[in-house]
Amino acid sequence: MRVLKFGGTSVGSAERMRGVAEIVAGQAGEAPLLVVASAVGGVTDGLLRGSEEAAGGGSAAPALARFHSLHREILADLRSELGAEPAAAAEADLGALEREMENLLRGFALLLERPPGALAVLSSLGERAACALLHRLLAARGLAVRLLDPKVLIRTSGSPLSASPDWEATRQAFAPLRSDPPAVALLPGFFGGDASGRVNLLGRGGSDYSAAIAAWALDAERLEIWTDVDGIFTADPRLVRQAAVLPEVSYEEAMELSFFGAKVLHPKTIQPAREKGIPVRVRNSFAPDHPGSLVHGAAAPADPAEAGARGITYLPGIALVDVTGSGMAGVPGVAARVFQAMAGAGISVILITQGSSEMAISYAVAEADGPRAVQALGETFAAELAAGLLDPVQLRPGGSILSLVGDGMRHRLGVAGAFFGALADVGVSVVAIAQGSSERNISAVVAATDAPRAVRHLHAQLFERRSELQLVVWGVGNVGARLLRKVAEHQSRERRVDLRLCAVANSQRCAFEAEGLDPATWVPSLAAAALPSSLDALLAEVARARLVNPVFIDCTSDDGVAAAYGRLFAAGLHVVTVNKKANSAPFADYRRLHQTSARLKRRFFYETNVGAGLPVIGTLRSLLEGGDRVLRLEAVLSGSLSFLLGALEEGVPFSQAVRTARDRGFTEPDPRDDLSGLDVARKLLILARELGAGIELADVQVLGVLPPDYDASGSVEDFLAGLPRLDPIFAVRRDALVAAGRVLRHAGVIEAGDGGYHCRVGLEAVGPEHPLFAVRGGENAFSFLTEHYQPTPLVVRGYGAGGEVTAAGALADLLKIVA
Fold this sequence. Notes:
Layout lengths: L1 E5 L7 H15 L4 E5 L5 H13 L5 H22 L1 H28 L4 H8 L1 H16 L4 E3 L2 H4 L2 E4 L2 E4 L1 H7 L1 H5 L4 E5 L2 E3 L5 E3 L4 H13 L3 E6 L20 E2 L1 H9 L10 H7 L3 E5 L8 E3 L15 E14 L9 H11 L6 E4 L5 E7 L3 H11 L1 H6 L6 E12 L9 H11 L4 E6 L5 E7 L3 H12 L4 E8 L3 H14 L5 E9 L3 E9 L4 H6 L3 E2 L2 H11 L4 E5 L4 H5 L1 H6 L3 E4 L9 H13 L4 E2 L2 H4 L4 H10 L4 E7 L2 H11 L4 H10 L8 H4 L2 H13 L10 E2 L13 H7 L4 H13 L3 E11 L2 E11 L12 E8 L7 E6 L3 H14 L3
Parallel strand pairs: 1-2, 1-9, 2-6, 3-6, 9-11, 10-12, 19-20, 19-23, 23-24, 24-25, 27-29
Antiparallel strand pairs: 4-5, 7-8, 11-12, 13-15, 13-16, 14-15, 16-18, 17-18, 20-21, 21-22, 26-28, 26-30, 28-29, 30-31
Helix pairs in contact: 2-3, 2-4, 3-4, 3-6, 4-5, 4-6, 8-10, 10-12, 11-12, 13-14, 16-17, 18-32, 26-27
């Protein structure tokens, strides 16, 4: 026999009940079926609210009206297919339930309280009403259906609102069904009956438990839990969009997952099935063709070569109770008394962590139980508290439990390290830790506000082998606009890293959307943005959104933005920058910034500061990390000057070469910024600091391209108009160099010497033997003469001018964050 349980959403409307009938009819010919049904979604909560209103002196009429209208609407929709007589019978059943409900609510109103036994009967009306409708619908489909009474079959004892099964009595009650099962039987879930036939509830979510008890008592071949999701997921799909359905899990894994927050199964459901070895399949009644998840004893552990884990759960609403005191040290039985106090107060302990000396015991309870837990401990340890042997009991509410669950974790080294390392990556502080002896579960208590982003990051790191970065692009000019286009292209390809654009800013406004902006159509979003272009406003939005892995990409040349990188690190953002100002700032500021990045574990990448898209800083760091020492570094560090001097070499007049370089976007809007050599000096300073030199920009000897006595003042247009006066001077110099077989290059040079490094920038005349001789047309080149690379230096050379290559370099830096 098979047991099929349908939840509240699966019977939540006439259309959903038709779906249930289709599923049942499709399986009815394969094996005898027991169908267990919940109340229509929301009905039980409505009954309880009605009881509170009545007992509080309010009117019961609204609750009665809600119950009546919901079920009568379903009946009206089903009436034509039920037929007149079955519809009238269903209507009579609903009428009887409504009268019962009215009598119960009237009693609550008279008593001004809700006796548990009467409240249990009221709470069972939802399941009984759903089955009254479903019974007639299944019969109308030609199925021979027998409606069963849970009070007779599911035998219970204990509290009417949270009873326990009497297993032996229940098995005896189901004996006739085992020996002579009907084709289809229908059983209301959620409740049973005691020895006197009175209604006892199995607890909230107890319809799953009803089905599991019935499957156990029937020795069922399979238990199917039909719900509104495709199965058991690797994480809550409401939190993690990439969560995947697990094809199979073990009984033990399913119990851990359900206990620590996975809502698809009731925590008590698995044990009866596990005892009898009954497979449990979780399926979606909204997508009946999906195979769902199978819970069984032969489930293969998750691949230890991967995460080794099956899923991540998230249990909110947790409070930690801390019991500490010097008087606890070495005293036997302290822990026993703590948990006896909890048992006496009827409080379930969810998680425990304890110091070996018993001087500190912390445990998690439901947040609602926290004050009662403190009171119970105060009564139990009254003498110790009065004598000062025990510190005042501390209650820390506002927590959530994150749990990593999987049988395969015991076979994989480093799971705990990966788990806690991932939490550290996103700045989530762990308040308490627990790990079971089976190594099937690692749990951590974190702040409730941190839990959702922690779950998303853990899932990405451990299950998806994929990372997501949330981008803030600050500046959308020449480089920023091109970077956004490259981000859009990246997202359109198969990739290991997802880039979610959360903010775009220009000098006036900032568009912010935590769920993501389209990098291909950011322009109208920015035009319509109301947020000012302010770092304070941005950081407030980032804090509210609780972004997991935010990255600030500075595509400006703004001194103020560069000076704020430390604040960005402190707010949890990584920084990628094309702006050279921070790394060429006074050395004390430079050192403080890099120390802050390291201390806060925020990544700071700036490869484009010196070579646009060329891997210069990465190459230099590789040399140093390999134990090499740089003796001399010579570099063409300006793509614009490389283009300009290359054009001059080909006979182009100097003034025309400058205008062409400006028109093509190779230079700054004011070419004097490039011709002065100051931009090259900043780049050389950054390289020198990478080598360990603690120098300032003033320590770099700088000679620009223009003659020292040339008056370059005035507006940009005035400056450009006066440049032809220099054409003869550069032509004579070019001709002399050509005659000598040499060329002119604007280079930066760093030389190792006694006591440190010496840096200079200026025009250099080089011959064919020199590594910079062939560099022209906008190329950059870097020659590293080192202890390992000599006498032939290591050369990095490539195109180094324009927004396109700089944007490509920024994208490469961005992807290094999760490398």
